[in-house]
Amino acid sequence: MRTSFGFRWLFIAGAVLVLIVACGSDDPKLDGTPANLTVPQEDIEQLAVIEAGLLYQEAVREVRARHLETGVYAYIADEINLIERALELNPGNLAALEVLSWVYSTYPEYLNDDTAHVLSLQYALAVFEANAELDVLAYEILAAAYYSNGQFDRGSELFDQGLERATNDEVIQTFKREKDSLRKLHEDRLAEPANSQ
To answer: Rounded to the nearest 10 degrees, what angle do helices 137-148 and 169-191 cross at?
Structure first.
């Protein structure tokens, strides 16, 4: 209920901003010609950030609703597309970077997509730089991205560092499972003949 309420306020704020920009604040010229209808760049950028936030929230809301129905928390193609569009509009959106890094390094659809793995590492590094001191999950995301790029020792180091910092038993058990399963997944992938050089 709280997410829905917050989303409505975000939508209303975005609509008000759109109206302000659309109406403009310049007085019309005395000769009756319309006022300058150009929109300042900072308003355009702010609108992009608002739209990006709305797209991200829509994707997360759909994932959470499906999670309540099925017990599976995963992004499907439509939701991934929403997150990608959100990131295009607001390249600094850490939440979108976090989701896409995880998706690109762990989802089966991207298992053999080297371009996605490179992006995953770039995104994970940005998330880690911003959030490592605040969120132990930044270690998991970066470790998974290193694994997807074949940097297994570095990925294992980060999982171990995350385990040292974790205080929640559920997080600790998840890290241990993912450390083993993700490493094996990417080691097996890279050992396949089609991927050997």
So the answer is: 10
Q: Quick one: DSSP state of residue 132?
A: T
* CATH, domain range 97-192: 1.25.40
The domain locations on the chain are 40-91, 97-192
Residue-wise pLDDT tens digits, 75-97: 999 999 999 999 999 999 999 99
Closest to 76 measured CA to CA, from 66, 86, 85, 68 = 66
Residues 6+ apart with CB under 8 A from 162: 136, 137, 139, 140, 143, 175
- Rounded (10°) CA dihedral 116, 117, 119, 121: 160
The DSSP code for 71 is S
Nearest to 188 by CA among 150, 131, 144: 150
pTM of the full structure: 0.77
In the chain, count H helices and then E strands: 8, 0
CA distance 148 to 81: 21
Helix, strand or coil for residue 68? helix
